[in-house]
Amino acid sequence: METFNSSSDKAFFLVGFSDWPHLEPIFFVFISIFYSLTLFGNTAIIALSRMDLRLHTPMYFFLSHLSFLDLCYTTSTVPQLLINLHGLDRTISYGRCVAQLLIFLALASTECLLLGVMAFDRYAAVCRPLHYTTIMHPQLCQALAISSWVGGLVNSVIQTSLMMAMPLCGHRLNHFFCEMPIFLKLVCEETKRTEAKMFVARTIVLVFPAALILGSYAQIARAVLKIKSMAGRRKAFGTCGSHILVVSLFYGSAIFTYLQPKGSYSESEGKFVALFYTIITPMLNPLIYTLRNKDVKGALWKVLGRATDSE
């Protein structure tokens, strides 16, 4: 089997879902719909966060970053998947594959960090309400958001550099995009030390923010249980419920994929799990936040009311 590290004339073959040709037309229709909903929903949240003064708060500042992140995140994989499902071209050049790996990993890492930041924001809002505006001042919010983006990019550059320095055998990727676990299956020499370094990096990006989130919500639960009125408890839990749901959806699938040992990773299973965190979760995020949040729904109806009046 041919071994190569980098070459402009090499290309990978993305198997995608060609093993189930009867499912490809169905996947194409549903993924096209989900992608359209993702673009519309996340764009709407960004627009509402800018247009309505009531949403000029730290929570919606981070939410607009999450929405922009989801737009980029899903766009880094879905167009290639739709081309693959349509059967037009199942190959991807070495350079494009590495670029996709770098971009996707950077965006995924940034989302891990940003969800941790959003958990801290909810902790400050519920557990330190009197000092919330002092703690979450605009300069800190901007610094936390920038740190999430920079941290995600740095993690991606490190892991991608380590990955592409390892010898790869074969050009057949049993996936619908260039993802880290599937590349590790192509490594054809003993590289345990490099793989161990990459595993540590993945663990830091996934486990540390998850631990921060769990700690934040443990403190939130303690604070909420001290509230005597049921109405106050429902309001406090309501402000955090949407974030908990987003975190559960994203982290559950990401940890399942990226913290598995290489030997136990199932390529076929991994493809279907990847559909969940690359397509389903970015589509659900706007629905979760808008359907469970009165402020967002109020801003939406306000904008729609203006549009109706102008007609």
UniProtKB/TrEMBL annotation:
Pfam families: 7tm_4 (PF13853). The keyword Disulfide bond does not apply. Its main location: membrane. One of its GO terms (molecular function) is G protein-coupled receptor activity. The chain crosses the membrane at residues 26-48, 60-78, 98-120, 140-158, 199-225, 237-260, 272-291. Residues 41-289 form the G-protein coupled receptors family 1 profile domain. It is found in: Cell membrane. Gene3D superfamilies: Rhodopsin 7-helix transmembrane proteins (1.20.1070.10). InterPro entries: GPCR_Rhodpsn, GPCR_Rhodpsn_7TM, Olfact_rcpt. It comes from the Eukaryota. It is a multi-pass membrane protein. CDD domains: 7tmA_OR2B-like (cd15947). Keywords: Cell membrane, G-protein coupled receptor, Membrane, Olfaction, Receptor, Sensory transduction, Transducer, Transmembrane, Transmembrane helix. Belongs to the G-protein coupled receptor 1 family. This is Olfactory receptor.
